[in-house]
Design goal:
The chain is α+β, with helices and mostly antiparallel strands. About 50% of the residues lie in helices and about 10% in strands.
Length: about 375
């Protein structure tokens, strides 16, 4: 592998992208003509973009990817608060934040530990089993807290995975078809839970927003948990493979995430001319906000950026960390050969997530 990533979109899967990020952070802004993107890499530049109302999560004329137009996938995607700048964004965000805040960390951690115990029962985990756990647990734990029955969780995690693959920029027709089926199935399952869990509370407090928006955003929380939650859990396991560390402490997670982030970038679309952190931008420009570079910027405050900032910052940090701690608690009970588990690790995943995969040494 080259000593330097090919470009910013390839950096998350590079063995050591951090010298590259440090150079970009020192520049603050850079223009990648091949990608057609501005790179906001310093803490000041990244923070300015994330705070600017002119920098949107979707193009003005494309609330959902064009390939999803006319599908249940596209309709659901377009209603997510994560992808919306509409007036509905603020009350939906308040609902999501309140629901997440109501979840006790210890309860979520215990639920994740119990699900991980059941998933790993019967045999010592190898790399392939670790990968399967990482893919299963974040969405399954969140769904369990939402009210899904335990017997449905394994199928649900597969449906969420199919959904994630379907909305990827490089998804093919077969993947979009599978994702559409998964989306419809998840909507049907959520409708069956309509009188319990988060949806019942959301309907009581925010029913004026409409059932479709409420359901779409609960499903959106599952979607968000899939890759980001899996990346966080896989990182915690990888660090444990290197040696003991204090994974019970949230502060230690944040310290490690600043040094070795999981979420490496997010994209923004400029809706009107603006000057941000000294850089003039024009309407129609696209900006890749390099969160991993901003976190390590020597001129910044030295803080993790994995959960974003501003109106689109993720409100699920506490819950995501609780799920990861629960999984590590279950693994520590088994007492695996940690160094052997980490021996075949590679980086392979979505372009914006530093995803560890452990099964490469198992012939996968």
């Amino acid at each position: 592998m080259s000593a330097w990533p090919e470009h910013a979109l390839a950096a998350a899967s590079h063995r050591d992208p951090y010298p590259y990020y440090l150079e970009l952070a020192r520049q603050g802004w850079a223009r990648d003509q091949r990608l057609g993107l501005w790179l906001a890499a310093s803490h000041a530049a990244a923070s300015a973009v994330l705070a600017c109302p002119a920098c949107r999560v979707r193009p003005l004329d494309e609330p959902a990817p064009a390939a999803l137009a006319g599908s249940a996938l596209g309709e659901t995607f377009g209603r997510w608060l994560r992808m919306s700048e509409a007036p509905i964004h603020a009350p939906l965000r308040a609902a999501a934040a309140a629901s997440l805040a109501a979840q006790e960390d210890e309860r979520a951690q215990r639920r994740a530990r119990d699900l991980a115990r059941g998933f790993l029962a019967g045999a010592a985990p190898d790399g392939a089993r670790l990968d399967a756990l990482v893919d299963f647990l974040p969405a399954a734990t969140l769904a369990s807290l939402l009210g899904w029955p335990e017997r449905s969780l394994l199928g649900l995690s597969g449906q969420v995975a199919a959904w994630c693959r379907a909305v990827a920029a490089d998804a093919g027709a077969a993947e979009r078809e599978a994702g559409e089926a998964a989306c419809l199935a998840l909507h049907a399952e959520l409708a069956a839970l309509a009188d319990a869990g988060w949806l019942a509370r959301w309907r009581q407090e925010f029913g004026e927003l409409g059932e479709d928006a409420l359901r779409a955003n609960l499903l959106g929380a599952l979607f968000q948990s899939r890759d980001a939650g899996a990346g966080l859990l896989a990182a915690g396991i990888a660090w444990r493979c290197e040696g003991p560390w204090d994974w019970r402490e949230a502060g230690e997670w944040r310290r490690r995430l600043r040094a070795d982030p999981v979420l490496h970038h997010t994209r923004r679309f400029v809706a009107e001319d603006a000057t941000l952190a000294g850089q003039p931008l024009k309407a129609g420009d696209q900006v890749l906000v390099l969160l991993a570079a901003a976190a390590r910027d020597p001129a910044g405050p030295g803080e993790s950026m994995d959960f974003g900032r501003g109106r689109h910052g993720c409100p699920g940090e506490r819950l995501a960390l609780a799920i990861a701690r629960g999984a590590l608690a279950a693994l520590e009970e088994i007492g695996p050969d940690w160094r052997a588990l980490g021996g075949g690790m590679v980086f392979r995943g979505p372009p914006n997530v530093r995803m560890r995969r452990f099964g490469a040494g198992d012939g996968r």
